[in-house]
Structures are given as C-alpha cells and as structure tokens.
Amino acid sequence: QGALLDGSKPPETIDKAQIARDFGAAMAARPALSQHFLLYFETNGVEPTQESIAELDKIIEAASRRPAVDVSVIGHTDTSGDAGANEALGLKRARIVADLLKQKGLKTNALFIESHGESDLLVKTPDGTVEPRNRRVEVSIR
Length: 142
What we know:
The chain is α+β, with helices and mostly antiparallel strands.
C-alpha cells in the first residue's frame, strides 16, 4: 500500500507495475541476502559427515552466483572435552572445510576462518555433553 506524506488520503493499494516503475532501480541494486550452510562432524573428529560433504557443491554454486563474494567459515564444537582444546578443534574443522572448498574451486574476494569452539552452541547443553548438532562448521556467503 501507499499513502501521501501529508495524510490527506487514506492508504491505497499500489499495483506491482507501479512499484516496479517507482522503485525498480533501487530494488535491483540491493545486494543478495547472505546464505548460510551448516556442516556437521563426527564425534571428536575433523571429518565432516557424508551429508555435509554433499553440501560443499551447493556452497560452491551459491558463491559462484555473486560478483565479489566474502565467505566466513566458523568452526564449533560440543561441550565434551576441554574448552581450550575445543577452540583448537573448531579452528581445525574450519580450516579443513575452507581447504575442501578451495579444492573444489571456491573463488572469493575474502575468506575468513575462525573458531568459536564451545562458546556459541546451537543447542544449549551443560559442560561435558556430547551433542552432534553443536559439532559444526558454519559457512556464510555474502
């Protein structure tokens, strides 16, 4: 709907053709929304699950549709084990995923690799809990 700024008329429905004429250039200039992918890992390991390996091609495809892509790869762990070791494990997982993506031809403007270890849980659990959904790498494409 649209309305006059002075409020002299009630709001009225604007047809899509008029919206395209008035705002088409601005809408076309919007950057694409970020895309996010979650890749999961075996317990205490650095090997992605088979389902996650299959996601790599989808990530490459999504990145290839952008003119200047920034990719963020963030490793996570569950709360089993020592927090410091989990920080290192999360980083190792993130580096492995980044390397797999590069091997598959990922072209980026910028690639950020980091670890949150057990500090950013997808599923909140007490310390010492094995939770498969927390053993992940998040890949964000912007």
